[in-house]
Design goal:
The complex is a heterodimer of chains A (126) and B (503). Chain A has 126 residues and is α/β, with parallel strands linked by helices. Helices cover 48% and strands 20% of the residues of chain A. Chain A has a single domain, classed as Rossmann fold (3-Layer(aba) Sandwich). In chain A, helix 3 runs parallel beside helix 4. Chain A is globular, with a radius of gyration of 13 Å. Classes of the chains: A alpha/beta (126), B alpha+beta (503).
């Protein structure tokens, strides 16, 4: 890969953000973390990331809102959705809007890493 | 978790004790049954009737005696009249003197036998006069007899004086005899008149007593009936408090009250079961939130441990300790969620203690925090500071608010504003819960507290939430009211009396 993969992590759980940043940066991936979706959306206006990892349940705008906005604005970004618990409807909705993958908590960071790599590959190929 | 020492008070035992207390209070009153009252009323009426009949009999026998006396008095008068007739014959023809004397003797005997009665009718003086005149009359006639038997040469002059004396005495006797008869007749008449009045008065009196007694007994029965009608209405509305004595005496309705209390005990038990199943159903609705609440700390723990396994050797001691502390915090967080859940589903329905309504509201709001979040609902909380406590059951109250919050959230599928206020109003604590949801239609408004009434799809709502809430609020002597407008939202107002023990 020529260019470093750029990832944005959005979760209201600070530990999730910190751990993922730690882990992914070790794998030479650049990571920016946000615990508030509003701030993340502002950052997204300035910069295009390869992959966004977002939680679903958050104070509005929710993960689904973020997914919708991202998918509307940029084809070059893939979104991985993580969630503590979601109904089938939310899953289908996310899939319909165009989420790259859906991951249930608790997850393993190694899985996330592989997913990020796959997603980045897809994002860059477009 | 709240584990008060007062928890030893087993709820079902507590209810059972209340039922027993009510039963003892109902039974310890002196017995005075309606049957006994009716018998008593009958006996009183019977005694009165007996009294009237006996006095009527006495009166009739008196009347008979008077009649008898009157007849004798008439006989006496007749005897005197006869004597006077023969006396006249004697003076005219010199015959029948013996017959005259005979009649006078008869009259004297009669007078003696009637002496007691006569003394009642005529004055002593009159009686003495009568006796004197009769004696004189008799003596004079006897004197005439001696004259007759002696010779015919009775002096004309003497005979004339005797004759005039006899005539005057005889006349006086007749007058006083007829006088006595007349008086007795008048007495009988007045006696008859008085008795007639007394008879009518007695009749009216019995009628009056009868009306009073019947009214009293039927009033007592009707009053009990309407009281029990009220009880059934109250029970139908979900107020299951036991029936306590309302009157001084124990009667047939006491058994009914005891039977209803038995039924109430059963109903309470069932309500408890219903409440429990409602709680479980509510927990079902909250599954998403609970899963989220548990998965987040679990995920955090998982991530931290994964990092530690990978980087254990690279980290310094401080970093390791920070990570372990984080794990500890996350475990506590998950533990709290589970504890809250267990706390909520615990059964202790009948136990009441001092409750801070704001605590209950906050705890319940924590439960639905996730639902509020997901449904993009804005929460506006205005909880009054330093609110006095109320007497209540924390878990049941939590159930009420949970039902109302979940309903409000479900009424706002596209988001909205949920407002929760608590404040003091007229010796009670008032809680306003309003939403900007779909609202309740006018025809549904009357039915929302009915059991099994629901506007939700089959499987989504049991229609028991509000009816159970209503029952709980009634148990707390509270009130619940709804105002709603289709399309613009609903306002539920709940009032609980402020507990006196804390003021």
């Amino acid at each position: 890969m020529d260019k470093q993969i750029e990832v944005l992590v959005l979760d209201d759980e600070l530990i999730v953000c910190e751990r993922l940043k730690d882990y992914l940066e070790k794998k030479e991936i650049s990571v920016e973390i946000f615990t508030e979706s509003q701030k993340a959306l502002e950052r997204l206006k300035e910069k295009t990331f390869d992959v966004i990892i977002t939680d679903v349940k958050m104070q509005a705008p929710t993960g689904i809102d973020v997914l919708t906005i991202v998918k509307k604005e940029s084809y070059k970004t893939e979104v991985i959705v993580i969630t503590g618990y979601s109904s089938i409807e939310t899953l289908r909705q996310a899939e319909f809007i165009g989420a790259f993958q859906f991951i249930a908590k608790p997850f393993q960071m190694s899985d996330i890493y592989h997913l990020v790599k796959k997603a980045a590959k897809k994002a860059r190929s477009q | 978790m709240n584990t008060d020492s007062s928890e030893i008070n087993n709820p079902s035992n507590f209810t059972f004790e209340q039922a027993e207390k009510a039963k003892i209070a109902l039974l310890e009153r002196p017995k005075f049954t309606i049957r006994l009252r009716i018998i008593l009323v009958f006996l009183i009426t019977f005694a009165l009737t007996c009294g009237i009949i006996i006095s009527a009999m006495v009166f009739i026998s008196n009347l008979a005696k008077q009649q008898e006396f009157l007849e004798k008095a008439v006989d006496f008068e007749f005897e005197i009249q006869q004597a006077r007739r023969y006396e006249k014959d004697y003076f005219l023809y010199g015959t029948n003197l013996y017959d005259a004397l005979n009649h006078v003797h008869n009259a004297e005997n009669m007078k003696n036998s009637l002496e007691n009665k006569l003394r009642l009718i005529i004055s002593d003086q009159e009686y003495k006069d009568l006796t004197y005149n009769l004696d004189q009359y008799k003596e004079l006639l006897e004197q005439l007899q001696t004259f007759t038997s002696r010779s015919d040469s009775l002096k004309m002059k003497e005979r004339i004086s005797v004759e005039s004396k006899i005539r005057s005495h005889g006349a006086v006797i007749l007058v006083s005899a007829s006088n006595a008869i007349e008086q007795e007749r008048l007495r009988m008449h007045s006696w008859l008149n008085t008795s007639m009045i007394i008879a009518i008065a007695a009749l009216l009196f019995i009628l009056f007593i009868g009306i009073i007694q019947t009214t009293y007994v039927s009033y007592q029965i009707n009053q009990s009936y309407s009281r029990f009608e009220e009880y059934t209405k109250r029970i139908a509305k979900g107020d299951f408090s036991f029936i306590t004595p309302a009157r001084k005496y124990r009667d047939e309705f006491t058994n009914l009250a005891i039977a209803i209390n038995g039924m109430l005990l059963e109903l309470k038990n069932r309500e408890e079961q219903l409440l429990q199943s409602r709680k479980m159903a509510a927990v079902g609705t909250l599954t998403a939130g609970i899963a989220h609440e548990l998965n987040n700390p679990l995920n955090n723990i998982s991530l931290i441990t994964e990092s530690m396994i990978d980087d254990f050797d690279e980290w310094d001691k401080d970093q390791k300790i920070k990570m372990l502390k984080d794990i500890f915090i996350q475990v506590e967080r998950a533990g709290t969620t589970v504890a809250n859940l267990l706390d909520f589903t615990r059964r202790d329905e009948s136990y009441f203690n001092q409750v801070n309504i704001n605590d209950v509201l906050n705890k319940t709001l924590n439960f639905v925090a996730n639902e509020i979040l997901i449904n993009k609902i804005q929460l506006q909380k205005e909880l009054g500071l330093n609110l006095p406590g109320i007497k209540g059951n924390q878990h049941n109250l939590q159930q009420v608010f949970l039902n109302l919050f979940l309903n409000a959230i479900q009424a706002m599928p596209d988001g909205g504003l949920l407002s929760v206020k608590s404040y003091v109003e007229n010796n009670s604590i008032r809680i306003d819960i309003s939403d900007t949801g779909v609202g309740i239609s006018r025809e549904n408004m009357e039915k929302i507290f009915d059991p099994f009434f629901t506007t939700k799809k089959v499987g989504e709502g049991t229609g028991l939430g509000l009816s159970v809430s209503y029952g709980i609020i009634k148990q707390h002597h509270g009130q619940i009211n709804v105002e709603s407008k289709l399309g613009s939202g609903s306002l539920f107002t709940i009032k609980f009396p402020i507990s006196m023990s804390e003021s």
